[in-house]
Each structure stands twice: as structure tokens, then as C-alpha cells.
# Entry
Amino acid sequence: MTAPYPHPTQAVILAGGQGSRLRPYTDDRPKPMVEIPGTGTPIIGHQLAWLAAEGVTDAVVSCGHLAEVLQDWLSQAQLPLRVTTVVETEPLGRGGGLKYAAASLPRPDEPWYATNGDIWTRFSLREMADFHHERGADATLALARPRIPWGAVETDEFGHVLDFIESPPSPYLINAGVYVFSAAFTGLLPARGDHERTTFPRLARERRLAGFPLPHGAYWRAIDTAKDLTEAAKELGSQQV
# Structure
């Protein structure tokens, strides 16, 4: 009988972005420290609670913009898991930053999760890890189908307007900013540069990159602008996420 797949117990959170489109909220704090109104917790607080609920015991937070603000909050908060912070002394790019942070994971020979620091979501990371393992992938990315911010118009073949659809789901899946990586993936990352332009395309060609569609009904939103904050507050007001 095959032993069950051990789910990852370590994770990296990429929290070093400037968050320029979220100003003035990010004038005095990094983007992951922004609170969605009504939730009572910053984005990173939600992420750490989610990771801990999914069995993660150790997280490495990659800091950048206003790193000291995030580090101060982490040092004072009652955290549900062990957290280490790293700060890039020079810009390494997304792939290089991921590699730099992964070097501080406590168990380098085990798989790990990663998430962008501006994502508010909740779904089963264990199911995603099983999906990753079943496909023998080196990397698996969560896939979301966001709503288009404009209303759509449905027509028939003669050009007659049939219906107006407010903010319909996109016909395309997008990278949701949540990942499962094998232990070997760390060595495939560039020391500098963007892994989405180097490592991911290579793995895709070799069929070693998998995409996990978010389960139906799972909440997901990237917090990029003030409008995202407002809409997330409305959405989360009707559910506990």
C-alpha cells in the first residue's frame, strides 16, 4: 500500500511589492498590511491564518517596501505558526526573490506553498497539493476565473441584442498567485529575473507545470486598487472568509 502524500508544511509569502496603485493606503504600510474594511485583520494576517489552518507550521515572508512596518506587526501579533522574514538588499526580480526567500525554508528537501502577498482567498491547499502530486508536477499554480469589470452584451448571429450581463465571469483562467512547488523547484528558479518568463515556460514545455482550478464557490480576489478594497469589503460582508 502506497504511503499517503505528505502535504507541505512550509510556505513563502511574497510581500515586497510597492503597492503604488493602492495609495494612499500604502504610503505608510506595505500592501499586505492593508486591511479590508470590516475584516479586522490585514491581508497577511488572513493569509497566515489560512496557511496554519491548512497544516503549515513555518512561513517565510519576503519583505521589501516598508519592511520594518510589516516586521513590527509580525513581532507583536499572536501568530498561528512560526514566521521568518527576509529582506532583499537589492532587487532580484520575482523569480530571484522567490529563490532568495525559499533559501530560508526550514525543510529544503520538502515541498512548499507560495502565495503573493496581496491575495485574499480561502480554499483547500491540501486538495491542491494532492492535485500537484497526482500529476507529478514540479510546480502547480492555482487558476481563478475573475469577473470582467464591465458589463457584457450578448447578441445573436444577426446582430440583435439579446441580453446585458453585468460583470460576467472571464472566459479565460488566470494565475491566481497561489502555488505548490516540489523541493526540486527551488533549484530551477533564476537567481535574478522573472520565473514566469523563464522557469514556468520551460516546465510547461516539459509538461511539468500543472494548473489547479479553484473549486466552485471558492472566494478569490487580488487586492490591487482602492476599488478592490471596496468590492472585497462588500463581498466579504455577506460571508465569513
Remarks:
- The mean pLDDT is 85.
- The CA atoms of residues 98 and 141 lie 14 Å apart.
- Helices lie at 43-53, 67-76, 93-102, 125-134, 199-205, 226-236.
- The two ends are 37 Å apart (CA to CA).
